[in-house]
Amino acid sequence: MTRDRGPLSSTSRLRHCRWLLALVPLVLVGGAFFWWQGSEGAAAPEGAQESASAPASASREAAAGRGGAALMAEPAAPSLLSPEAREREARRELWQKRLERAKRSLESYEAATRYPPESRPSREHPDQMELAEPERTRPLSPKAAEDGTSDVQLRLKQDKVFVVGDESVLFTVACEDARRAPRPCEVVSALAHEADHLTDGGGAPGMPVTFVDSGQGGDAVAGDGVLTGRFQPSKQGFALFSGTLRVVIRVRSGSLEDSAFFDVLYTPAPPATFTGKVREVLENGSLDLYLAVQVRKAGRYVVAGRLDDEGGVPFAVLSFNEELQEGTQEVKLNVFGKMIWDDKPTFPLTLRDVEGFLLKEMGDPDRELMATLRGPVHTTREYALQQFSDAEWRSPERDRYKTELEKDVMEAQKQLDAALMDTPAP
């Protein structure tokens, strides 16, 4: 008879339940243990919490300290200021800017007027250190240049603009490409006119001017492609004319042809003449050069000369603008002492290229020209720097302007001080 191995017997079931009941306390004890460990971590000692959080707290406090210092060092943002505080800040900024502008104006005026107007360093007027000898280029045919069908350039030059008495002026014409290589060039015609008659269909007929490339008549090199024309107004129909004369030319290069012109200002008889005599005097801490002049017409004369140092380096532009009476007179050109102190040129100095004119109050032209003294006119003696004064130029006008500019500075400073003290200025 076999034993039944199906469902458990009652004895077996009883033993199985007892084994399960024995596991329950173990589970409860284990759960209690893990719960106690978690509670210990959550309820850590107060000192341990403080130790763990100390670095973070210190960082936050340091950051807060730096932020506070920055707030104390910098003004609060405009949005955080009261309307009264914003108004005070705006007033302070306004007068700060006005003070800076007033100081700049004073400094600029003092620097610009440290020398007299008639004695200025060459660096201020580099364009006036040479006599006028205009040279210019332009497309021979502007339309062809725009279309890109030709790059022929016309180069025009004249050796003087102001012509007096029997003086003559030389004009040169050349054709070249963009690389300045010569191109064929021909002056088809050249006519001199009075400027007042340069109108379409009217005016007196022009006087012809001849252009050559033969090495003669003022032309420098024969056959170099540069054509030269000599114009002498006194001998070519303008002996009694005073004013602007225009020489109109037509130039041809290949199939291109167009017009160009030259202008000169002509005086048939000079109102005064330089004799060429110069005397120099060291006085009042400056060097004065006196040019002898024979005056035929009394009036206001404007004279200018250039001054170079021993090495030929441009040093100064000297000028004269005063009334002269008829007869033998002197024109004073002043070499200001402080200018010598500041630039320290090497002596002796050379006066060159002196020109002048009589200024006319009414009419056209507004001047009558004197014949220019071209090239070196006078060489000074040698002087030591200590023989000159380093004092700035003084005049009633300069003192008056400086006083007004200084008042602007003081007023702006007073208003700024008041704004900084947060009190209304008196």
Give a description of the structure.
It is a single chain. With 426 residues, the protein is an alpha+beta fold. Among the domains are: 119-128 and 270-387, Immunoglobulin-like, CATH 2.60.40.3870; 151-267, Immunoglobulin-like (Sandwich), CATH 2.60.40.1930. Helices cover 30% and strands 32% of the residues. The protein has six helices and 19 strands. The chain has helices at residues 10-42, 46-73, 83-112, 142-147, 337-343, 396-420; strands at residues 119-121, 135-139, 153-158, 162-164, 169-176, 186-194, 207-208, 211-212, 227-231, 243-253, 256-267, 272-283, 286-295, 299-308, 314-324, 327-335, 350-359, 367-369, 373-379. The strands form four sheets. Strands 1, 14, 15, 17, 18 and 19 form a six-stranded antiparallel sheet that branches. A five-stranded antiparallel sheet has the order 2-3-5-9-8. Helix 3 packs antiparallel against helix 6. The protein is extended, with a radius of gyration of 47 Å. Residues 1-73 and 198-202 have low confidence and may be disordered.
